[in-house]
Prior knowledge:
- The structure holds 2 protein chains of 2 kinds.
- Chain A is mainly alpha-helical.
- Chain A has helices spanning 2-32, 39-56, 59-89, 94-116, 142-164, 166-176, 178-183, 188-208, 220-235, 240-260, 266-279, 308-322, 330-355, 364-381, 385-391, 393-407, 412-432, 434-437, 450-453, 455-477, 480-490, 492-497, 502-528, 538-551, 558-576, 580-594, 598-615; strands at 132-135, 138-141, 443-444, 530-531.
- Chain A contains 27 helices and 4 strands.
- In chain A, the strands form 2 sheets. Chain A has a two-stranded antiparallel sheet. A two-stranded antiparallel sheet of chain A has the order 3-4.
- By secondary structure, chain B is an alpha/beta fold.
- In chain B, 33% of the residues lie in helices and 24% in strands.
- Chain B contains 9 helices and 10 strands.
- Chain B has helices spanning 46-54, 76-81, 99-110, 126-135, 151-162, 181-198, 209-215, 233-238, 240-246; strands at 6-17, 20-31, 35-39, 61-66, 69-70, 84-87, 169-173, 201-205, 218-223, 226-231.
- Chain B has a 6-stranded mixed β-sheet with strand order 6-7-8-3-9-10, with helices on both faces. A 4-stranded antiparallel β-sheet of chain B has the order 2-1-4-5, covered by helices on one side.
- In chain B, strand 9 and strand 10 (226-231) form a beta hairpin.
- The longest helix of chain B is centred in the last third of the chain and has 18 residues, at 181-198.
- Residues 255-263 of chain B have low confidence and may be disordered.
- The chains are: A mainly alpha, B alpha/beta.
Amino acid sequence: MAFYVVQFLTGLASAASLFLVASGLSIIFGVTRIVNFAHGAFYMLGAYVAFTLTDRFSGAFGFWGGIVIAALVVAAIGVLVEMVLLRRIYHSPELFQLLATFGLTLMVEDLVVLIWGPDDLVGRRAPGFKGAIDFFGQNIPSYDLFLIALGPVVLGVLWLLFQRTRWGVLVRAATQDRDMVAALGVNQKWLFTSVFALGVFLAALGGALQIPRDAVNHAMDLRVIVEVFVVVVIGGLGSIIGAFVAAVLVSELNAFGILIFPKISIILVFLVMAVVLIVRPWGLFGKPEAPARRTPGLTVNPWRPLTTNERLAAIAVLVVAAALPFVAGNYVLTVGSEIAIFVIFAVSLHFLMSVGGLASFGHAAYFGLGAYGVALLAKMAGLPMIACLLLGPLLGLLGAAVFGFFAVQLSGVYFAMLTLAFAQIVWSIAFQWVSVTGGDNGILGVWPEKWAASPSHFYWLSLGIAALAVVVLRIIVFSPFGFALRATRDSPLRSEAIGINGKRIQWTAFVIAGTVAGLAGALFAYLKGSVFPDNMGISLSVDALVMVLLGGVETVSGAVVGAIVYKALNIWLVSQTDLSKLVLGGFVVLIVVAFPKGIVGTLEAFMHRRRKSSSSASSPLLTSRIESAE
Amino acid sequence: MSMVPTLLSVEGLTKSYGGVHAVRGVSFELRAGEILALIGPNGAGKSTCFDMLNGQNIPDSGRIRVLGAETTGKKPRVIWRMGVGRTFQIAATFPTMTVRENVQVALVSHGAQLFNLWASTARQARDEAGRLLDLVGMGAYAERPCGELAYGDVKRLELAIALANQPKLLLMDEPTAGMAPRERVELMRLTARIAREQSIGVLFTEHDMDVVFEHADRILVLNRGTLIAEGSPEEVRGNAQVRAIYLGEGLLYDARHREGASA
């Protein structure tokens, strides 16, 4: 019995940090409507800065002072980020805000390695809380008791802040109606900045307080952000009480989940989240959002199928690509195969996020499931390659069918958070279930059969499948189903009113996208000869997002162009620098701020302007494209 | 009149929020080809009533039947499939598609082709979409992006979309809100003409009393959740209780004496 009590208390102690980070995220979202993906990065920075400060200054004052100063320092960094970056994108579509803060996360990950090195850092014990308390023969660290008390204290302080101060009243008012608060003469800029600073302070404090419990490392940002997303999805985004209750719930589920499913403890949390989403899609303490306004896009250019000339040009490009083995060496062909595979992956995400308006931040899960599907079939069942390539993606289909069912219940930022959380769950299963997946060591020796083994043959195989995938998805885009999907994206209200079951349409699209991603993963397993948990990792999901974004998120062909350009750049970049995440993250931020239409989008705008200026006199109906002012 | 079938029958519709009775025991009927206006001051329960009819809100009690089939508590998309078209107070269309494609989507949905992954939508119901657009006077704009239409044209496009399932009943929530006076008259005349030609029943809510008194065959007046009057425009205009509610708003003058409603 005592053991369970101690386990319960450990869970409560873990909840404190989680609550701090989640409440910060909720507060920022409430006022600015931005889901700050970089919140985990600020948490990690808090821990690193606190490590340095507490290491430097001795004594109790040095420790506690160091913790608080670390949180303040990171909050100051947050202010800088808000002023330089976020102020530019408050009016951008949601997707761009998510991506920009995500790019920031990537940059911070490389920066901390650069400053503090790649090794885990073990922090000081907290002065005054070094011992443990005996509880019927079980030890409870006294620091845990401190954290257990801290959670409710912070909750109380936040409550007082929001209920009893003028600033708090303004924040609550802005949460309900920003425009009205601005109309009343409140300086919105500084209100936003101060709210962001408070949110970041809470995240950094959460990180700093972890150092006596856990080693500091450069992967803690993603671990915490996934848990925080789960917390706010369960508790309700924007609710501080919700963040508190859900943080306790999730931490306890983790603490006891380990006892029930020692290998895959995260399953329990997932099950609870699934139940909450079915019963209360807006979270335990959240309010149902008003029917979502369509995210204002950048253009209103209707899509059209390729003209005959464009089709011929595309075929010509394909023929040239197919001739590559006659002039290029093995290395180039391997790179070519990889690019072709990533074209498949990118068009699958494009289908979901551009056509369906559902920006998945965990699309790599289905890529990875396809890869593992192939690896398991080939190694365990010993099936021939063709059978593996056909059946492997079905694992991606299965995963997309299960997770997609829950994900499409939500939209916008909730959808993004949930898909990311799902992908992390799949990743941790691959990582933890060593007996089946080989864990960190992956599954090796997945080689193609003789007919496809040579680089040129494999290249042709990949190119052929990529061309097929692109053509099939394009046909679907212009099919009645594709139109129904776009209709659901454009106006949920109208599409429901003309008999479209939007959720079912989106679920089907999710399954299609997941299956095609699985196909890409299946090929990838054969290309590399192995599969690893990283094949479903977050950075791969981000890669896919960037490819679509770089090509042009509001175009039909952007994903193809984006995948080719990005993958080629990426492979070159990785060979040139160790700081690829820093460069990649900077690249993402740059695209969002300076180049949101992407390559194809910019080209289209250019062509459109030319066509318009040459024909505007003759055809009054061909009017100018309106660029959304929102 | 009794030979004309009852399209919509509403019995004892009731909805309350907490202690507030938004709608209390509202009953009425609507016949084919009839244009019925639902009016009342702000907060009278018009929108609640309307949302229950189109499936966006579930009544606490009461029954709604369309052509004898129960629609109470059904989802909007199901109600649409039972032959009910609708337009919104703020027109809802698909801004990234062309005008024709907007109508084509509705036609494709009506033809139960939504899960067709292979056909080319451009060739689906192209002529039918063109006919509907001609009907609302939008034929010349068929290939234009919907996102760059003037608002009055978006409203007409929305009407074409609403007609795509050959509805028996059309629900229009403040059809002329946000439009210029001349556009209002044109849109309502168009609606009335189509309704008479195809004997579609129309139920609309409206704040503009000119529109109501010129176009409605019959008027329902709602106040604090209950129906307080029902009848022809003349009857309603003469009703003392209605006058009392609207007193001072100057809304019940004879519409025909006003500018813009003549000719």
